[in-house]
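Cross-posted from the bioinformatics board.
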Amino acid sequence: MSKKKFNLSDITKSKIFWAVVAELLILLVCLIKRPDFFKISYQPATGMLYGSLIDIINRSAEITIIALGMTLVIALGGTDLSVGALVAVAGAIALKFMRWDVLVYNTPGDYTVKPFALAILVPLFVCVLMGMFNGFLIGVGNIQPIIATLVLMVCGRGVAQIVTNGKQFTTQYSPFRVIGQGHFLALPMPIIITILVIIIMYIFVRKTAFGTFVESVGINRSASRLAGIDATKVIIIVYAITGLLSAISGLIYSSRIMSNDSNNAGLNYEMDAILAVVIGGTNMNGGKFSLAGTVIGSIIIRTIVTFVYYFGIVSEATMAFKALIIAVVIVLQSEPVRNYFSKKFAKNNAVVKGA
Amino acid sequence: MANEYILEMKQIEIQFPGVKALDKVDFNLKPGEVHSLLGENGAGKSTLIKCLTGVNHKDAGTIILDGKEITPTSPQDAIDMGISTVFQEINLCPNLTVAENIFAGRQPMKHGQVNWKEINRRAEELMQRFHMDIDVTRPLYVYSTAVQQMVSIARAVDIQAKILILDEPTSSLDDNEVKLLFDVMRELKAEGMGIIFITHFLDQIYQISDRMTILRNGSLVGSYNIDEISKVELVTLMVGKDMNTIFNLKRADVNPDAPYMLTASHIGIKGSVEDVSISLKKGELMGFAGLLGSGRTETAEMLFGVKATETGEIKKSDQSVSFRQPHDAIANKIAFCPEDRKRDGIIGDLTIRENIALALQARRGFMHPISRKEQDELSDKYIKALGIATPDAEKKIGELSGGNQQKVILARWMATDPDVLILDEPTRGIDVGAKAEIQRLMLEMCKDGQSVIFISSELDEIIRCSNRIEIMRDRKKVAEVNGEGCTQQQILNIIAEGASAAEEVNA
């Protein structure tokens, strides 16, 4: 048994396996209902690929990006409720730099602050600071994460309102449009950004020892401290990263609508992000985490939403329907069910070996 | 016979997964006596109390209270039978008034409503009985710990208790408060109540107890009248002569000219440990003896920066250093295996490999990762060197036995190649073989020129391995003796009697 063998019983034990199974099942139902569901077409006019699958991944970008940060937060045994509010903050600040109110100003870009880079960098910077504030409350102040991040969850949208004087700005500034509506290599830009973020995050947490530190602190903070890990620093970095990712997500969102929306931007994102992490197999108690699982979890959530749209489920029932599917996915992943299947497969294996 | 004892516990056995927590223990209590229950941590004191108060359930044996056999199934059940317990940590509600705390859950009623007048009147009466003239309508938190302790005793007594269990009630009290508590205990005793008293302070046992029962490793050592046993004999019985296994271990020789590796002068934290000075030479093994709570662990924690010192100075190789957190100490090549392996040592869900590499990685910082290949080499090396019993390095450390977990933690620190290794009770709760193995490793490290501080409750271990032995008592260092030619009896004398005995040894 020295070599690692392809072992069905081990695979069925893993949570990611069940997340993938759930995703495939939903897609299968979609395919049966609409045979052209998987069809992807290239439109030379726009230079982009179109199709339901592309759309699902494109639309899941905002949640996927945030959920990557949330994965680290949850691995620490925490939660970050402020991510949705930070999405609104990032959008408000970006638009503050680019507002072009057609009624007041005549020339496009009249009110655009140059250089354009500020419209991108300032929101990122502010959200990192806000994330560090969360991390400070939790790491230094020892405040429970759910309470500490509630502060910015509540007041973040207020900050966004103050930044824009309570107004909704719009812009036509085309470089900004690229973020949410542009394309690269025939793929929508949000997908490209998501892939980049995934790669950078993966390198940062798995190619350095940061991921191990996060897991270690999440499993046993006291022992980690005694082993020489600066737990406070790890906590602050993790929340700062989540702040940064919320800002990226916020820029994509506001670029899609070319506007800021302090009330609705990022609404309930914290819940979807937490859900994506949990579906992806990371335990809410902290410890071992899986970035790949989180990405799948986020795509599942978006697939369900698409599913609901496509099948003409009455809009009043949308939320209930979404909840129903999620409940099924989570039950599939629960320990008793996984153990049941794992035992079943183990038995089958044994029979095969015996014969 | 039924009249002589108010409580008889016979042949009590409790089995926890993997260990026999209590093995055929007898305990009895007369009305109107203070009976001390003694033993080191893990000896089974608290298990016995929990069995009596219905928290744990006995697997065999009988409990007879007042001539009737009882089987308490829950703490409330035990209280109803007349067994009251006051725990070390005060479990009252600080935001309720004193009177409310005393009568919570059993308020006197009048016409279907709580009779506040009655509550306050009776509470006041009760507190006055304890010589406490306080306003019972004020919230509990405004009063000192001692008063709060009295309130919880008052509550326990007012429940018409036949037996009162006091579990370390004095650990947070000062001398006057202890005296007050003892007065109250004497009055209760005079009224015929049986009191079970648990404490780590030996002097207090002799002040207040009539009899004592000693437990060790879950077994009964014996019950004695207070005047039939001396403090020295008591400590000997508590600590116990160790196993018959003969280790062929010899303490390492230290070059008398060896430079000092770590010196601490007059370090302390107010209210914890005060004014400890040590000087550790290169290649030396320094033992720390003393009872639990004597300040051994606190001293080690100061040397490792777990708690920052408030007074005094620490020098590492003649350079003054200040440790604000463990990271600082690790950067200075100091390592520390904590006493509570589960809470402060292992990262349960990480693999053996990750646990071994952790401290070295933390010292390097996360931006300079140890490559997977290096990690594998490191863990393979130590799994072999320390004889860690595991199929491979990818097993979670939480799934290993206690002794193997301890070896992994040891490997974690050996991997950092420390100058000074501090081990706090590294041999507790692990089997004899692993114990011998760990002692052998310590001595080998000393031969290689590393210095070791070894804290243990087992004196024979300390004497066998140490070059010098520091003896702690009541949060102070009371003596330093040479490991060569010193006997268990001498150390027990110092632990029991304090510095006066130390002078005789050194004379």
